[in-house]
């Protein structure tokens, strides 16, 4: 019986030690303050990410970076016009190059368009934004709300779920003309 009790405590002690070792891996490998990351393609700046705090977990098997105090991303289109997105929190998944933006997500376009939602994903490789959360979008022609969005960074191509709101539609005259002599 003494041997069994001693062996039991020995196993419990080993488990405690393993838990401490594994807990160490949960800590970030790096912490940076007031960071600025620049995303380029063929030496052309595509986006700049800034954040007050960056936690680096690239030592884990599923590498990621966390921005617990919020972040701002400025996207540049081919004419070097800026579109900006801000969020209260974000995670960059290094292997997929997808940024998960959470909390008071606001996207401001160079043309004055504004999108607001609680969560949005940005695919840096494809320069694509998407969400399954409710959002609102406003610009000169649109004032709408929907539950899903899938769009490029310029909002020139997008798909949504069920829409509500107002959309300005310009009526055009039919191009067929009727000959009055008939």
Walk me through this protein's architecture.
The protein is mostly beta strands. The chain has one domain: Lipopolysaccharide (LPS) transport protein A like domain (lipopolysaccharide transport protein A fold). The chain contains one helix and 14 strands, in the order H-E-E-E-E-E-E-E-E-E-E-E-E-E-E. It has one helix spanning 2-25, and strands at residues 30-41, 44-56, 64-67, 71-76, 82-87, 89-93, 98-108, 114-123, 128-131, 135-138, 142-146, 149-152, 158-160, 163-167. A six-stranded antiparallel barrel has the order 2-3-6-7-5-4. The N and C termini lie far apart (114 Å). 17% of the residues are buried.
* First-residue to last-residue Cα separation: 114 Å
The CATH homologous superfamily is named Lipopolysaccharide (LPS) transport protein A like domain
Radius of gyration: 25 Å
Rounded mean pLDDT score? 80
DSSP strand count:
14
Number of helices: 1
Give the class-level CATH name.
Answer: Mainly Beta
Question: What is the H/E order?
Answer: HEEEEEEEEEEEEEE
Overall number of domains: 1
- Approximate strand percentage: over 45%
List the helices and strands and how they pair.
Layout: H1 2-25, E1 30-41, E2 44-56, E3 64-67, E4 71-76, E5 82-87, E6 89-93, E7 98-108, E8 114-123, E9 128-131, E10 135-138, E11 142-146, E12 149-152, E13 158-160, E14 163-167
Antiparallel strand pairs: 1-2, 2-3, 2-4, 3-6, 4-5, 5-7, 6-7, 7-8, 8-9, 8-10, 9-12, 10-11, 11-14, 12-13
